[in-house]
Amino acid sequence: MTYHNLARADAQGFSHLLVRGFDSKEKGALYQTLNISGTDTFLSAVQTAQSDHEIKLTLVSEPIQVQTEVYLTFEGQVELVCHGSGIEAFRGNSKIMDGFWTSAASIRTLFVSEIEDLTHLPASVISLNPNLRKNTIILLIEPTETQVQITFKSKNFHYTDRNLLHSTDPWRRYSKYVGLNYLFSPATTDIGSKYLIVGFSAVNQPGIFGYNYRSAAETTGANAIYILDDFGDQGAYYLTNNRSLHIFRTVQHLIHEMANDLQIPLSNVVLIGSSKGATAALIHGLGLGTCNVFIGAPQTKIGTFLSKAHPNILKYMSGNTTQDDIDFLNQYIYEQYKIVKSSPKVTIVVGQADHHYRGHVIPLKTHLENTNHNISIDVLPGTPHRELGKAYRTKLLKYLDKTIR
């Protein structure tokens, strides 16, 4: 892989960087070029480190009061999968490169897959860069003095390939404030067509993003969507990056649009998940209001949990790992319960031996006492957190069979 710093600015006032040679020799004489462009204030100071199979670019911004855009345009015959904080590039069925970006600022990632469809882009982006091309990734960076580190690899990839491009499953891309990857499973029965199940995923190993409980949901014959939480390296609880709520708002828009398109009332929307997925389902249930939430062992004190188990996720979501960052996430669900006008019907399955029971579920139950909000708690004898998945799935099957009829 090689790196070139081109002329400082073009006719549109953009600086350009060029990265070449993503394809390894083992995969043949393939050749790929990536053109990186952005405002001169952002690309004027670039530090690089490179090897045969990796390039790290550190883009430095001066103090500015407006949003900054960086454009990553891929030339040649390549197909892209865009994630919340990175991309994968494929030629045919072979993955040839991926990229991953991090910053202390909030970054919104948008993807131009086809030049004919730019309706999801902010008008400011189109006006500033009227010559947008296919296979362009747009990074919208909040106004601040910051650095953005972008790492490209042609081996030892950031992301595990989940076959989003060539799968027989109907993977889709939704864009609003940020982009989302989701799988849509249409209803297979008449009664199922009146319901929508939304699946939220638990934490996986870094770079591995998937979904849970699909087999349980499909027994109902209902419509279902499974949204990837592919923000940062291990997810963002479908909620926030550096305290910006663009992720949350985009997920809310997707659920509302799917329900409206399918003519399904929110009272027939069911949100499911366990652990992180349970927390996300509860958060989005509070956002939707009159829906149904059936979850297993959520973290309601999100910041405290992440500070010990996943400080990387805490930093991605809250901006850092200080007590203030922990408190910001700890308070989120409790504050939402204070302001919602109508809360969802919530059932929580949790093991008595699970630390989530006393550390997260009981505090929420206590908080809701003497309010108009109620939650139902199904406490399982024993059942530590590591054994929750199987027990929750059994309970979920019974709940869905009872609900969707």
What would you note in describing this structure?
The chain has 405 residues and is an alpha+beta fold. It folds into two domains: 2-153, no CATH class; 171-403, Rossmann fold, CATH 3.40.50.1820. Helix content is 26%, strand content 30%. It has eleven helices and 20 strands. It has helices at 40-43, 123-128, 214-218, 246-261, 276-288, 302-309, 311-318, 323-330, 332-339, 355-368, 388-403; strands at 2-5, 14-20, 33-39, 45-50, 54-60, 68-74, 79-82, 86-91, 94-103, 107-112, 136-141, 147-153, 171-175, 179-185, 196-199, 223-227, 269-274, 292-296, 345-351, 375-380. The strands form three sheets. It has an eight-stranded mixed sheet, with helices on both faces. β13 and β14 (179-185) form a beta hairpin. The longest helix is centred in the middle third of the chain and has 16 residues, at 246-261. It is globular. The termini are far apart.
List descriptors.
405 residues, alpha+beta, Rossmann fold, 2 domains, eight-stranded mixed beta sheet, six-stranded antiparallel beta sheet, 26% helix, disordered N terminus
Oligomer class: single chain
Q: What percentage of amino acids are in beta strands? A: 25-35%
Euclidean distance between termini CA atoms: 57 Å
Helicity range:
25-40%
Please describe the topology of this protein.
Blueprint: E1 2-5, E2 14-20, E3 33-39, H1 40-43, E4 45-50, E5 54-60, E6 68-74, E7 79-82, E8 86-91, E9 94-103, E10 107-112, H2 123-128, E11 136-141, E12 147-153, E13 171-175, E14 179-185, E15 196-199, H3 214-218, E16 223-227, H4 246-261, E17 269-274, H5 276-288, E18 292-296, H6 302-309, H7 311-318, H8 323-330, H9 332-339, E19 345-351, H10 355-368, E20 375-380, H11 388-403
Parallel strand pairs: 15-16, 15-17, 17-18, 18-19, 19-20
Antiparallel strand pairs: 1-2, 2-3, 3-6, 4-5, 5-12, 6-11, 7-8, 8-9, 9-12, 10-11, 13-14, 14-16
Helix pairs in contact: 6-7, 6-8, 7-8
